Amino acid sequence: VTDHQRIGLFGGTFDPVHFGHLRTAMEITEHFALNTLYLLPNHKPAHRSAPGANTAQRIEMLSHAIDGVDRLQIDTREADRGRPTYTIDTLTELRAEQPVATLLFFMGLDAFAGFDTWHRWRDILKIANLVVIDRPGAELSTFAQNLLRTQASAQGAQIHNGSVGVIERCNVTQLSISATDIRAKVSAGKSIRFLLPDDVREYIEQHTLYS
Ligand code: ATP
Fold it and tell me: Does residue 12 have its Cβ closer than 6 Å to ligand 1?
């Protein structure tokens, strides 16, 4: 038994949160023995168009979804900032709060393909480890392939207590669910049952989101 903290961050728009996110969150929490995995809703994503639900609503849907699961929490710092933010700033803040914890930043393979366009991406690897999660249909860019290869030979292939800059790939149960598809189904009047938790579906209905 160790009291070393392993803290994960899983960023996204969560517009809305669905079982693709939630099952992934559960599996990576167990696989990487995380004390806490923070789901990190962004405020206004730098790389995407404006979301359909507002920030407060995305956070409320997330809270419904993770209710009762102790190791899953929400970190609202990016959402609270009220302006677009960079991952490097969030990780710098988190590092200041958690000077000795091992930090793991999770992203889907689709997001990792464009990691070289992220603000100060090299500095991200000085603070945290990166876990790239396989996602149906997504492919590694040439940049991503090269970075995985060079980083593995420089830092070792496995995240361990105290490591930074390790990039691991992780396979999770592949659920081909996307928020885009859920929004499209709602707006077409189709059912979204069994794609996301009932509480979240009811929230969407009550607030007539995406229609
Ligand atoms: P959209 O369809 O609006 O782009 P999304 O469903 O991709 O949304 P995001 O909020 O953009 O959801 O995703 C947040 C993170 O979760 C990203 O790193 C993304 O790769 C990952 N993710 C999303 N859906 C899945 C899924 N079905 N399986 C595994 N990872 C997923």
Answer: yes
